[in-house]
Amino acid sequence: MCEILSLSVYGKKMEVILNRKMRKRCFFVTLRKEYKTRPGEFYEQVFWVTQASARSGGRKAYLPQGGKQTNFTVLIDSRERYPYRFGKCPVERQALPAGDYGLVQDNRLVAVVERKTMENFLSSLRDFGTLRLTLQELRTFPHRAVVLECSYGDLIDPKKQSFYAPGYVADILAEIALQFPDIPFVFCGNRKYANEWIFRFFKRIHEISSPSDLSP
Fold first, then answer.
1. What predicted TM-score, i.e. pTM, was given to this entire model?
2. Is position 18 within any domain?
3. Residue 84 domain-assigned?
4. pLDDT tens digits, residue range 94-129?
5. What is the CA radius of gyration of the chain?
6. Which single residue of 32, 77, 85, 88 has CA 20 to 30 Å from 52?
7. Alpha carbon distances (Å) from 53 to 59, 87, 101
8. Residue 190 belongs to what domain range?
9. Does any domain span residue 214?
10. Rounded Cα–Cα distance for residues 198 and 216 (Å)
């Protein structure tokens, strides 16, 4: 018998780390399927996948799928002058309590994202206290993130920004990571990729929060 060091559940997948030197990682994946000859009746299959077999199989990241309906309602803060686009998803404009973009599930705001251009972020450093309050507000929602339309390198490159010394900006970002480890800062590089990241972020939250399309 081996001691379990870590056990986590992600969707229909359970990840286990054992207290031993070799072959310490494994996965249990549960799938629910409908009987071919008995529509409306379901059975479960549990697969045990070792780390070695996962490597040899060249498996991709396991993404538990939600319902077939991929559309979800996105809220856009009314103060966004040039908002992102979200394909066929329903979009509503209103004053959000936090962030610039939000995801609605069951008439409840479950995810918020604060969007920052490089200029926006550098400007917010003039009053770090206000920036901290903004991040505290994001924390009040189950899912949250800050998306930047620039790279980390852009912020510390004196050729691309001359507002602050590169070391000062780097220190601020490190301080934010320590004070707010539960809020990811995503450096997307430009507006297009920032838009794409938010769409995928909301899509995954919608999928894992929705009933499985295999459920009765």
1. 0.71
2. yes
3. yes
4. 999 999 999 998 889 999 999 999 999 999 998 888
5. 21
6. 32
7. 9, 38, 40
8. 73-209
9. no
10. 31
